[in-house]
Amino acid sequence: MAGDWAWGEYFTPSECMKPGAFQRRLRRAAPLASARCFSTQRHHRWSDPATFERTRLPVDEATTLPGAVYHDEEFFSLEKNNVFQSSWVAAAELVDLQNPGDLVPATIGGAPVVLANDNGTIRAFHNVCSHRGAQLINAKCSKRRTILCPYHRWGYALDGRLVGTPSFDDDPDGKKVPEQLREKFRTHHVKDFDKSKMGLKPINVECALGLAFVNLSGEAPPLAEWFGDLLPQFADFEKSLGAGKLHATHRKTYNIDANWKVLVENYLEYYHLPAVHPDLCKVSGVDEHRRNQGRGMYMGFATDPLTKGGTPLDPGRLPVFPTIAAHRTETAYHLSLFPNTFFSLYPDAFFRVVLSPQSAGRTVEHATLMTHAGALSVPDADAKMEELFAYWDNINTEDIDICEVVQKGTAAPTYQGGRFSFRFEETVHRFQNMIVDKMLAEPANRYRIPNGDQEATGFYESGSWAEPKQPATAAL
Ligand code: FES
Ligand SMILES: [Fe+2]
To answer: From atom 1 of ligand 1, which residue's Cα is the shortest distance away?
Structure first.
């Protein structure tokens, strides 16, 4: 029954058994008879479970989120706290934090943060000076022993301790100040000033899959629990992705006129391949893709087997990651980490995108192509990586173009949501229900970690694929 499927828990078995329950669900799944304009109903609608009732249904009965979730600035503002500050969010690539003294700034849910490599330990702090609130670090930097405020030069050690407050409390006789200025700078009489309590505010940080993740609320479960079976599933890759193991060969920033969720949802499904990526489809079409969905705050599918069509994605062009299991050398994994990171992990390289939402209708994508030292040691490695990046850049641009088209269409007040294809869009349904869990912030659901699809996940243990079953409700 539907309860066996991801998000099926929205209907308990007893509800499903009641006479007429299925017909009632279908009525709820039907498109609204009259479109309602969200602009006049505003944010109270976003805290009302009834708004999302049709998306909560099992995937084969559900309706997608209404178009306003991609356009309403109030929704976007609520997402900052409910989605981004309460989740584990990718804040930095570990390739940028591999040496002691590396500092990387980021903005998560509207809050400025800074990540630091403190003698091999990755730390994260609110990127705000304890004095008068200046943002401390504005760009990546390296070889720093302190985090120095650009305003009055307070200095913080990389473990967050406040260690320097020039002419403030550590110079009681004013001897560091030129004599003629001492009267003006007699600012050391600060009552009850305790430097040990004025350090940087720490943020929970954990590392995996070559990324540093932060959780600003401090309430999310540990990262290993958050991602469920994902990290054990990729334990062999993980040994190749840690600090110092990866090399970023290409980076690109894309400025996009689309909501960040449109970009995630596009990445989650391969239904659009024939229309949007016709060249890719010539060598890797819909039939080579399978769902790869286990328990955890992620959505996944895979390409298996990788076909050899004379493109830069062909297996065998570069040596594979040295630690991966034998059955992975002809498979690529396409993974989206809730909320805003997605990547395609190939046996020899991977292309990763981290989204930085700017407003309801605008998103910046940071894309990075990475590989390992062994791949870079072959004679024509640079040329091969260049070709690979050009290929990914083209695919990504095709995706961005169609996402901007979706952004325009979903602005129509008549668009109140569509229907999901079970085969292709269960991942989109899963993502949208994660969004609803976060936005409603109901205690029971706020940190719910969805179950996986047993039929789709069995492959990685057995080394072979199994076709996912249709949900039982489809046969009623
Ligand atoms: S705001 Fe940072 S030292 Fe004054
Ligand atoms: Fe695509």
So the answer is: 132
The domains found in the chain, sorted by start residue, are 1-68+243-476 (3.90.380.10), 89-204 (2.102.10.10)
Write out pLDDT tens, residues 300-340. Answer: 999 888 888 889 989 899 999 999 998 889 899 999 999 99
Nearest CA to ligand 1 atom 4: 152
Q: For residue 203, how far is its CA from the centre of ligand 1 (angstroms)? A: 20
Comparison of pLDDT for 446 and 8, the residue scoring more:
446
What stretch of H or E contains 77? helix 73-79
CA–CA distance, 200 with 156 (Å, rounded to integer): 7
Residue type at 422 in one-letter notation: F
Q: Nearest Cα to 294, choosing from 431, 476, 451?
A: 451
Lowest mean pLDDT among 2-11, 19-28, 42-51: 2-11
Average the pLDDT over 264-276 and give the result. Answer: 94
**What was the pLDDT predicted at 360?**
98
- Ligand 1, residue 134: give the atom nearest the CA: 1
User: C-alpha 233: how far from its chain's center?
Assistant: 18
Q: Which amino acid is at 334?
A: H
Distance CA 435, CA 82 (A): 9
Helix (H, G, I), strand (E, B) or coil at 379: coil
* Measured distance CA(60)–CA(2) in Å, rounded: 9
Q: Confidence class of residue 173 from pLDDT cuts 50, 70 and 90?
A: low
Specify whether the CB–CB gap between 344 and 237 falls below 8 A: no
CA distance 205 to 364: 23
Least confident of 38-47, 86-95, 121-130, 369-378: 38-47
Within 13 A of 40's CA, how many CA atoms are on the CB side?
4
The contacts found for 340-345 with CB under 8 angstroms, 24 or more apart, are 340/84, 340/89, 340/90, 340/260, 340/264, 341/89, 341/90, 341/211, 342/264, 342/267, 342/268, 344/392, 345/234, 345/237
Which residue from 114, 128, 131 has its CB within 8 A of the most atoms of ligand 1, so it is best to mutate?
A: 131
Q: Tokens in use for 167?
A: 């002419």
Quick one: what percent of the chain has pLDDT higher than 70? 83
At 181, give phi and psi (nearest 5°). -105, -5
Token pair listed for 301 = 């599918």
pTM for the predicted model, two decimal places: 0.86
> pLDDT for 381-391, tens place per residue?
999 999 999 99
Single-letter residue type at 161: R
Q: Give the nearest ligand 1 atom to 150 CA.
A: 2
Whole-angstrom Cα distance, residue 282 to residue 391? Answer: 14
Could you tell me the CA-to-CA distances from 318 to 109, 280, 323, 379 in Å, in that order? Answer: 38, 20, 15, 10
